[in-house]
Write a structure and sequence with these properties.
homodimer; 662 residues; Herpes Virus-1; Signal recognition particle alu RNA binding heterodimer, srp9/1; 9-stranded mixed beta sheet; 26% strand; globular
Chain lengths: 662, 662
Amino acid sequence: MADEYKTRTGDVFNREQYDSLLTRKQFLWQSFEPYGAVKGLFDYGPPLENLEAEVISIWRDHFIRHERMMALKCSMLTPYKVLETSGHVAKFADYMCKDPKTGEILRADHLIKDVIETRLRSDREARGEKVETEEDPKLKKKKAKLSKTATKLDDDVRKEYEYLLATLDDCTGDDMGALIKKHDIRNPVTNNEVEPPVPVNLMFSTQIGATGREPAFLRPETAQGQFLSFNKLLEFSDGQLPMASACIGYSFRNELSPSRGLLRVREFLMAEVEHFVDPKSGKKHPKFASVREVKLPLLDRNTQSAGGSTPQIMTIGEAVDTKLVDNETLGYFLVRIMQFMDKIGIDMTKLRFRQHMANEMAHYAADCWDCELFNSYGWIECVGCADRSAFDLTVHEKATGVPLRVRENLEEPYEVEEWQANLNKKKSGPKLRQDQGKVEAALLALTQEMKEKLSITMASEGKVEVPVAELESGKVELDKDILSIVKEKRKVTTREYTPNVIEPSFGVGRILHSLMEHAFWVRKGDEARSVMSFKPTVAPIKVLVVPLQKDTRFAGLLSELEQRLDDAQLSFRVDQSGVSIGRRYARNDELGIPFGITVDYESLEGKGYTLRDRDSTKQVRASLDEILEAIEKTCKGKQTWDDIYAKLPVFEGKVEEEVEKV
Amino acid sequence: MADEYKTRTGDVFNREQYDSLLTRKQFLWQSFEPYGAVKGLFDYGPPLENLEAEVISIWRDHFIRHERMMALKCSMLTPYKVLETSGHVAKFADYMCKDPKTGEILRADHLIKDVIETRLRSDREARGEKVETEEDPKLKKKKAKLSKTATKLDDDVRKEYEYLLATLDDCTGDDMGALIKKHDIRNPVTNNEVEPPVPVNLMFSTQIGATGREPAFLRPETAQGQFLSFNKLLEFSDGQLPMASACIGYSFRNELSPSRGLLRVREFLMAEVEHFVDPKSGKKHPKFASVREVKLPLLDRNTQSAGGSTPQIMTIGEAVDTKLVDNETLGYFLVRIMQFMDKIGIDMTKLRFRQHMANEMAHYAADCWDCELFNSYGWIECVGCADRSAFDLTVHEKATGVPLRVRENLEEPYEVEEWQANLNKKKSGPKLRQDQGKVEAALLALTQEMKEKLSITMASEGKVEVPVAELESGKVELDKDILSIVKEKRKVTTREYTPNVIEPSFGVGRILHSLMEHAFWVRKGDEARSVMSFKPTVAPIKVLVVPLQKDTRFAGLLSELEQRLDDAQLSFRVDQSGVSIGRRYARNDELGIPFGITVDYESLEGKGYTLRDRDSTKQVRASLDEILEAIEKTCKGKQTWDDIYAKLPVFEGKVEEEVEKV
């Protein structure tokens, strides 16, 4: 069971207080509220939208610019065929059970887990053991109607249940059907028996065009668009590997039981990198040496198998040397992911890398590590970092006949016997005219397999149809006078191969959810006051401006201040409401504004302003130029409050905030 | 007819050369190419993706930060009911004609325009008049098969055709059906007669949830999500108007004939502002004085009616004073839109504001001006700036019963007689228990109309059903003992009103399309070389690094240079290929890289580097510190090349580029 989630000050996380802050300050809400909110769809209000923009901007700088990745934007609408090839049409499904009396649809694995966990909890209660409640309180209330008394289980049954939970991820649909029958698992809210599990595809389907002849889906990941752009990417990088593309974009999953805030939603932003490497290179990374000594918390497969959950702290150099992490490229990305998380303000004590168990990975994956962040829902996968091998490029090449490969010159050429498709130029010219070039390119691109097939057709029918995507008709018919397909010896001077792909894939919403929880704490004092301690680099609003009191004499200074902040391109909020200055600070601390500039009577005498540190509530006093410079540098991540304290004199005004400082 | 499109150097735009550049440099391509590209869906490659990111970043700064707008992110998946209320289900359609023999679907208005324009063109040819060809060359070729000879029309017919084109936008589906019959308009490619026009909705439909009980669309605009967040926005702005929200997000239109690059696509990024004002305020804008004297090119409704197409250059102050532009807020936004376009590098001679004709506007719109950019397809609407009045908030309030209004305290209260719905708390308490508060709130929110309706039901049946969105059942039944609905006198101390909305709505793809065309020109010299003159602020890559020759002695300097550029967070590209330095400059000019740093033999002697200006090809020589400072300042928009030339000495090296300078 997960540890209890605590805030950065070591206090137990108070979900009610936290949710209240997010609601009052319009961080997010369920979309289309006036129409009855739709589950799994969220709108982001100003604080969260700006936070996301800052996080994305850092992501772009940290990955795309610094790693010189090729930024890509791919379409969300995706033809059926593409996702059929990728395996999503057949396999991207959850098993669902229907409550036949209410029509309610329940995810089979969640249903089983939920019911069995409730029984185990009830058992622990009956035995007088400590019970952690991690259930949705609303759901709990509903279910409470059905079973109010704690029920002790036989020791054997308890063991069986525990085993069942540990192995649930391995179950097929049939397995789950059997478990539901065997353990009399029912809809916990209605107590009705449920129908056997059936697979339901999680993609949103639609159609492109008026006639509906082009069935399509909203993509479930950005990756496929990147794979299908492979040849463009290769050209852009002058044919050189390793190369990486990066796509920040939305994906969609028709989750049947969306839940837990931003952790399982139907429409979500991803940031995915596809790093293409030559499999023969050993997946070395040119910059690995620069990160060798960085230490990471690694929870490997073997530790998990043995029931452990404590990660080893180890340098990535050692992890790769000992093959705990499969290769340098994967290792390099784990480090870069951690550094990114640190940059945006994730609590480094709430981060770990967990290796996938063999049964968790796709069949083609070579290795996979998740960057998990700890929040009030437990350890949550926020970034997957998988080695997808050559799977995707291979299946798309096979399905389309378009080569998705790298060709490189060999130092030592050799000879092979191969199918060749050659045009008789004298005869083909008059027939193909301006299409000649396109047809030649298409012939060159045919796989050996296809050429052999065509040669058989040619032998029997004297003509063949050659697919030529570049032509409007998509094909051309050629007879044996024009086209010869023969097996010939050929000198091989180039090597062709399908690259392997390492894919770090970021769930932006999950990261934001964790980031907000990590930033949240409660300042004790006269009254408990919530604070969002966002780093200045990501804070949605950078500066709070507060005049000490309502006084028209401040107007001139305020307007100068606003102009200067605007010139410096700093976002700010002015709070001129009549409440006490302490209360104004407190309510803006909830928005996570890192800097507070106070305009007071000394300011009127030209003695500058005070600058308040949201986290410590300490203030310094300085000229406007000094204050702006301090804010700008800190918001760019070039210094911290420590540097400001070292430079500017602390202001010991009357203590306006009777609250605990951190 | 539109003028011929010319590049910034006054040369006729060469589409072939331009398209070739976009393809070779991977600016964009049709999505899913290996599967046979899908029309109307584009992937952006590295240059265009980065260009878009820079443009969006400037938009955020120019609008969201500077204007202190509330940034919002709203869901793309949108329930049916929402778009039914907004009118999109009924009215968001195009009229289509089917070619019954080929099954091809043609947009009725495009078909008519296309055929009639072809006939007029043919007529002009036959009369020996000058003919501008603005047709898609591919389409022209196809049609050429059908009509090869120029045909002169009767003068009357010619006039009728010209009138028809001018009034086509006013036609209903039936009108268009009649025109097609009368003028024997056929599919220009097949010469088949077409079926009468039928309306086809342009939204992509899908379903949310497993059971498909929630029909939904992909939103056709971001606006509706913003309207439905109105109450959150009002709370965030402490109940104060004017206030504005801004949403940058994707919208979708199932265009039936996507065409012309990024101008009509199926999936597109929008940036929309909803600026809410009190209609009683006269739609004044607090910052209007600051823009009063800015001059804009305004093509108003009357000029257009009279057949004119030359905009008047006028200060926005005069335009608003004379009511040419309806109000200050609309006027303020027109100026800000123009300033934004200037910032990102739009050619100001290719920008105008065109007022909508009365028949172009939605029935509820008070006034509407488009910011049009001139490109090779003519004048294209890139930003719509409409006054949507109170339409959207009103219809959503009516459909949901949730008030979407502003309430403000009155200085002089007055009395009215109104329907009141009051709970008998003694009796309601035991029945409603913890739901009491929610029911009270729902009762308070009922409109007068609904209360009157309920009072009639109550009188006849003794009980009513009250909608309470906050309850799970969505309603509660209350009988006359618990609820009284009566007409009562009430002192009015507050004023309630539905704000009006001014909506600047940016089509990002169209802006990018125009921006790329405006940036493109051809440098004459030994050979014509294409250049993309992106402003340094938006350029996809900021710096090109070129060693003079392949020489291992440069390695150390190159690596230092790369480190320094990385530290300065500047994106760069190193071109170490073996071709001449002139050729390397030229091919990177196609990517629009504004700065070129050359490492030469003097650099090895510690004599700094040369910095090349992409547009003039001039160079200065300076130390690395000076060069980096120059680049950083210019990329932030804080100076131009003129400032660099004023400060750093021009480098008169051997002339390596035998090309025309601009």
